Every structure is written in structure tokens, then in C-alpha cells.
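Incident log, support desk, overnight shift.

02:14 A customer reports that sequence design results differ from what the structure should imply. Their input is reproduced verbatim below. On-call engineer (initials T.W.) acknowledged and began investigating.
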């Protein structure tokens, strides 16, 4: 994948005051691995799993 290989070889930090990538954030820049090697591979894991349930359960009888 040429796009991935390009970003492995070249740093993609912003050259101005705008944030374009996670690399431009303060918390990311405080990580010692990325301070020493700006071309280190970054793997981001994300999950967005929400389960909404009835706290009374599905076996509640209607008495009305």
C-alpha cells in the first residue's frame, strides 16, 4: 500500500498551528516513543459498542 508506506517513511505532523492528525495533539507529542522517532508506526484501536437493556428484564408481567 503506497499511502501507508509514504507515511512510514515521512513524518506527517502539521507544519503550522492547525491540527490535521492525531500526531498534532499535545498528548500524542508527550509519548516518548514518538518524540524520539516521529516515523514510528501508530496503531489506533477504537471501539464504540453500546448496549441498552431493560433493567427489569424481559419477563416482567403487566398487571394493569
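02:41 Re-run completed on a clean worker. Output:
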Amino acid at each position: 500500500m503506497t499511502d501507508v508506506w509514504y507515511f512510514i517513511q515521512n513524518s506527517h505532523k502539521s507544519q503550522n498551528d492547525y491540527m490535521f492528525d492525531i500526531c498534532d495533539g499535545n498528548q500524542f507529542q508527550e509519548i516518548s516513543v514518538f518524540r524520539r522517532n516521529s516515523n514510528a508506526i501508530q496503531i489506533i484501536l477504537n471501539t464504540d459498542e453500546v448496549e441498552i437493556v431493560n433493567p427489569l428484564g424481559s419477563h416482567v408481567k403487566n398487571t394493569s
